[in-house]
Amino acid sequence: MNGKAIELEHLSYTFPDGTEALRDVSFYVERGEKSVIIGPNGAGKSTLLLHLNGLLRGQGAVRILGQLIDRNNLKKIRAEVGLVFQNPDDQLFLPTPFDDVAYGLFNLSADREEIAGKVRRILGELEVEHLAGKPSVHLSPGEKKRMSLATVLVLEPEILVLDEPSSDLDPGSRRWLVDYLKKRDATMLLATHDLDLAWEIGQKIILMNKGRVVAEGTKSQILGDRALLEQNHLELPLSYMLNKGGRHT
């Protein structure tokens, strides 16, 4: 299906203390597209993501699958946008991973057998079914990341939004995550400091700094522009340099 999955028009947001976090942000993500927001600390990336399911409400327009977010359709929007937080502990709050992954389903169905089947399927897809009954406090950072992802994917959202998905991961866990996201056929919007992840996954790159969109384009256009990245306190990703055989300018 063609069309815009996410569309922001002149979005601005100021925190109660007067800090201006987003300034006239406009861009869109096509259905089926994997887009990545990059930028230094304080760029406004995480604040922007919180607008996509109505957790924050700024000035301007946010449309999800053509629907303008308002207080009357928040429940529907939140079913369509699966937001995975940077810190898994913000998403996991019950004694076991099974409980956490099943939690959202109980709002949709009272059929415990059906819920258990859906939980088992998504945990199997993420290769963590053996951890279903383990106390969540004993999970590794990588295991917690997968479980927080599972709590969202089990609800089958139309759009997957991830905030710093590779943070705190060891190399093996990070490699698994990158490979999984690359092969998953879904509309995605990621915010990350990990420019190598952005290079591997992103079809479109959106560069933000100080609450504004500075540049937007293909990964080669943005992640291959040394001057642009350095102006925004970023560096060329290693993946780009290796892709160019070490001959970069």
Tell me what you see in this structure.
It is a single chain. This protein has a single domain (4-243), classed as Rossmann fold (3-Layer(aba) Sandwich). Helix content is 33%, strand content 24%. The chain is built from 10 helices and 10 strands. The strands form 2 sheets. The chain has a 6-stranded mixed β-sheet with strand order 6-7-8-3-9-10. Helix 3 (97-103) packs parallel to helix 5. It is globular, with a radius of gyration of 18 Å.
Please give the radius of gyration in angstroms. Answer: 18 Å
Structural class: alpha/beta
Task: Give me the strand/helix succession.
Answer: EEEHEEHEHHHEHEHEEHHH
The number of strands is 10
Question: Mind telling me the CATH superfamily name?
Answer: P-loop containing nucleotide triphosphate hydrolases
CATH fold call: Rossmann fold
Based on the structure, what is the oligomeric state of the protein chains? single chain
Our estimate of the beta-strand percent is 15-25%
Major beta-sheet overview: 6 strands, mixed
Per CATH, the architecture is: 3-Layer(aba) Sandwich
Work out the count of structural domains.
Answer: 1
N→C terminal distance: 39 Å
CATH class value:
Alpha Beta
Could you name the ranges where pLDDT drops below 50 across 5 or more consecutive residues? none
The proportion of residues forming helix, as a percent range, comes to: 25-40%
Main sheet: strand order:
6-7-8-3-9-10
Shape, principal axes of CA atoms: globular
**Mean pLDDT across all amino acids:** 93
